[in-house]
């Protein structure tokens, strides 16, 4: 739920668009049954309704671990109905990312926190460039690191 909140805030997704969001989780049935999920969230409006609107589905590879009711209610095929023009979907994306990220735990535990954040930033940027096969010119255009940093922020950093 925290990730969903941050995603909506960062991407500035309007409440009217929340019904197009898809939440994929291998244990979505149990999460959706929690008291926190059944009631409005303790957030200011309209974010109190954030969990209610998105489509919630199970990850494809975890379907067999769930009973028929779960497979029906949280079926990943529903993504295709919500987004008929979506050619591909990867309900394993988060797990694949976590699996990749685990390789760096020992390194990250051995360096100070401020360097951890910088190291993570560089890792994520390199992975995204690799996954999306960006050209060097495209990579320069997509300087995520600079997003939201004003000129005055940089002056403070350089002092
Ligand atoms: Zn289930």
Please tell me about this protein's structure:
Helix content is 49%, strand content 4%. With 159 residues, the chain is mainly alpha-helical. The chain has two domains: 81 residues, no CATH class; 66 residues, no CATH class. The chain contains ten helices and two strands; from the N terminus they run αβααβααααααα. It binds zinc ion (ZN). Zinc ion (ZN) binds next to loops. The site of zinc ion has 3 residues, from loops.
Largest sheet: 2 strands, parallel
Strand content: under 5%
Number of helices: 10
Oligomerization state: single chain
Radius of gyration: 19 Å
- Uncertain regions spanning at least 5 consecutive residues: 153-159
* Strands ordered across the widest β-sheet: 1-2
Mean pLDDT: 84
SSE succession: HEHHEHHHHHHH
- The shape is globular
Bound molecules: zinc ion
The structural domain count equals 2
Describe what is shown at a glance.
49% of the residues lie in helices and 4% in strands. The chain is mainly alpha-helical and 159 residues long.
Primary descriptors:
single chain; 159 residues; mainly alpha; two-stranded parallel sheet; 2 strands; 49% helix; globular; disordered C terminus; binds zinc ion
Helices and strands, with pairings:
Blueprint: H1 2-10, E1 22-24, H2 28-33, H3 35-38, E2 55-57, H4 68-73, H5 78-82, H6 93-102, H7 105-109, H8 113-131, H9 136-141, H10 151-158
Zinc ion (ZN) binds next to loops.
């Amino acid at each position: 739920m925290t990730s969903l909140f941050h995603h909506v805030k960062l991407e500035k997704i309007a409440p009217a668009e929340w019904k197009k969001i898809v939440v994929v989780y291998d244990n979505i049935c149990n999460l959706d049954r929690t008291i926190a999920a059944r009631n409005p969230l303790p957030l200011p409006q309209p974010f109190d309704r954030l969990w209610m609107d998105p489509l919630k589905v199970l990850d494809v590879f975890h379907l067999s671990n769930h009973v028929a009711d779960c497979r029906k209610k949280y079926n990943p095929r529903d993504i295709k109905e919500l987004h008929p023009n979506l050619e591909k979907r990867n309900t394993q994306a988060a797990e694949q990312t976590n699996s990749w990220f685990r390789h760096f735990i020992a390194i990250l535990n051995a360096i100070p926190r401020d360097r951890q954040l910088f190291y993570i930033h560089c890792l994520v940027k390199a992975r995204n460039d690799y996954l999306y096969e960006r050209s060097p010119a495209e990579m320069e255009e997509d300087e995520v690191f600079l997003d939201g940093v004003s000129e005055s922020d940089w002056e403070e950093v350089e002092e």
